[in-house]
Amino acid sequence: IIGDGVGDTVDPNAVSGGIGTNQTTNYAEAAGFGAVNGDLAYRKAFDAIRATFNYDPLVLDIVYARIDHNTITGPDTNDMINLWGANAGYKFSDKWNTFAEGYVWSKDDSSRRHVGLDKVDTVTTVGARVSTNPTAKINLQQEIAWQGGKKLNNTAAAPALQRTRNAWASQTIAMVTPGWKYNPTIGMIYSYFSGDANRDATANAPSLDKKYHAWDPMFENQTGGHIINALYPASNFHNINARLTMSPIEDVVVQWDYVYLAMAKASSQSGAANMNDYDGAGNLFAANKKSLGQEFDANLLYNYTEDVQFGFLAGWFWPGSAYDKNGTTVDQRVTATEMIASCSVKF
Fold it and tell me: pLDDT tens for residues 78-89?
């Protein structure tokens, strides 16, 4: 829920700017790349005030963050995006090393008042997470969260129209470290984010009096497939990630990920009438098809010294049946490839 302080400052009116939630950074936008390279930025911090109350084994964090401060263009004095929240974590003393936490986070976007709209887009997220180790070799985690608030219609002229949010998300993690040669860890991560068949209030969308079920990714900082993370916001999909990590030689760590991605709710429209329904990139989707694609990532990390680290990432994404190539001049079912070499030096 909270991990990347950069968030979506380029286009706060869209769901993650229509692209992956960790991609829309000031650096990429300023460089003229349209934020497409934002997933390579290391900036994660929030401009925030944080109070921590340590009542070991209970720790409570209370946070206020200023996400974006726009230029005032109207009579009002509030055109900002603000974040408030509290997170309570409790470490149990059982033999399973269990840790549990609960949280509430509220985000409001007042900036649209200054573009002819008179309402505020708000998101309130309430959730809980548990992590436990039933044996020394197994870690299990479960998180579930609900979102309420008001969704401001992206297309209506003033007075702006709002829909009531009612969205859900969950994540299940199972990791096994069997203690074999090369110290492998085998894991499965399943993430679910609720969605709508047609998200925005357009001619093809549900009535504005219907509840808004698309999950707002807030400021998450997870990567279930590197290319997937650059293409999609964490909304309206099932993400299934099978992972294997091992250290074949000293100071070298290798990780392989296979990720399957599918819509939680398939689009009810096809062709041009359904452009920008989910990814904001002008892609067309076939009606009633859920499969978005598969990805395979290979990641190698070499710890040359304590302060110098080399990395290499190779990833391939194969689009699924939800992509519709009919009626377009470009075949959307072409394999996407990403290769990144990196060097990290600590001073």
Answer: 567 889 999 999
3-state DSSP call for residue 87? Answer: strand
**Cβ–Cβ under 8 Å, residues 333 and 319:** yes
Dihedral-angle region of residue 44 (phi above 0 means left; psi in -120 to 50 means alpha; beta otherwise):
alpha
Summarised one tens digit per residue, pLDDT across range 45-99 is: 788 999 999 999 999 999 999 877 655 555 555 567 889 999 999 999 999 999 9
Contact present, 63 and 104 (Cβ < 8 Å): no
- Distance, CA of 196 to CA of 205 (rounded, Å): 9
- Note if the bond before 159 is cis, omega within 30 degrees: yes
Coil/strand/helix, residue 300:
strand
Distances (CA, A) of 305 to 183, 251, 345: 20, 9, 9
Rg value, the chain, Cα: 21
Cα gap 237→322, rounded to integer Å? 12
Mean pLDDT for 260-267 is 89
Cβ neighbors of 208 (< 8 A, separation 6 or more) are 153, 156, 161, 163, 201
Burial label for 42, CB within 10 Å (0-12, 13-18, 19+), is exposed
Hey, how many other C-beta atoms are within 10 angstroms of the C-beta on 29? Answer: 18
